[in-house]
Amino acid sequence: MSKLAVVTIHPVQQVAAEPQTLDLLTARLRAQLSERLEQPVATNQMGDFFGWPLVADPALPPGIVYLRPFPQPPQPEPDQEGGDPAMTAHPIPENGHCWWLVSGKERRLHAIPGRQITPEAMRDATDEVRTIPASAACGIHRRWWMPGLFSRLGRRRCIPCCRALDIPAGYGTPANENHPKENDRP
Q1: Is the torsion defined by CA of 173, 130, 18, 34 positive or negative?
Q2: Is 78:85 a contact under the CB 8 Å cutoff?
Q3: Alpha helices, DSSP H only, in the chain?
Q4: Are 161 and 137 in contact (CB under 8 A)?
Q5: Between 182 and 43, residue with greater pLDDT
Q6: pTM reported for the whole predicted model
Q7: Which residues pair with 98 in a beta bridge?
Q8: For residues 138 and 20, what is the distance between their CA atoms, to the nearest angstrom?
Q9: Which are the contacts of 184, defined by CB distance < 8 A and separation ≥ 6?
Q10: What is d(CA 12, CA 165) in angstroms, rounded to the nearest whole number?
């Protein structure tokens, strides 16, 4: 096997490959780094250079290196309609019962009414790294996906979606905003 294919799945948190493929990758990287650093590099130091652990996964096909997120443990069933309240892009009351998702270049968070996408469908789409077709509150129909944590916290919301839901425009999902209550103001 002389060539390696690299598959990236964001957010990258580990480098995973079938054991022989991982051995080949580390040997090539070790040779290049040792040459560039002009000192030998041990195999157990390889992950330290990139900040990602190197994981041997026998379930993966040979010849392919995956830059992927950590596998997620099974989550307990949410006790609230629409999803886990800790996942602030879910259709909880604070989010206007909408999913807050992105498409295209991920410039805006859009509100997708919760009735269009079940939590199971969203979980499956996220696990399988695929998009879900749906219509946003602003009327556009696209293929959507769950944004990353920092997008859920800081990406600007679609203003037409906010108007359709009668919520203020802002950044991040509505559930993440800390609006001071009237009686909390000095």
Answers
A1: negative
A2: yes
A3: 19-37, 46-50, 119-127, 149-154, 159-165
A4: yes
A5: 43
A6: 0.51
A7: 113
A8: 50
A9: none
A10: 34
Residue 2, Cβ density class (10 Å: 0-12 exposed, 13-18 middle, ≥19 buried): exposed
**Rounded Cα distance, 176 and 122, in Å:** 20
The strand order across the sheet containing 64-68 reads 5-8, 64-68, 14-17, 54-56
The Cα–Cα gap between 144 and 122 comes to 10
Cβ-based burial of 61 (10 A; exposed 0-12, middle 13-18, buried ≥19): exposed
Range picked from 7-16, 110-119, 147-156 for highest mean pLDDT: 110-119
Burial tier of 173 (Cβ tally within 10 Å: 0-12, 13-18, 19+): buried
d(CA 91, CA 161): 14
Burial of 114 (0-12, 13-18, 19+ CB in 10 A): buried
Q: What is the pLDDT of residues 157-173, one digit of tens each?
A: 999 999 999 999 888 88
SS3 state of residue 132: strand
Kindly report which listed range (28-32, 70-74, 75-79, 108-112) carries the lowest average pLDDT score.
75-79
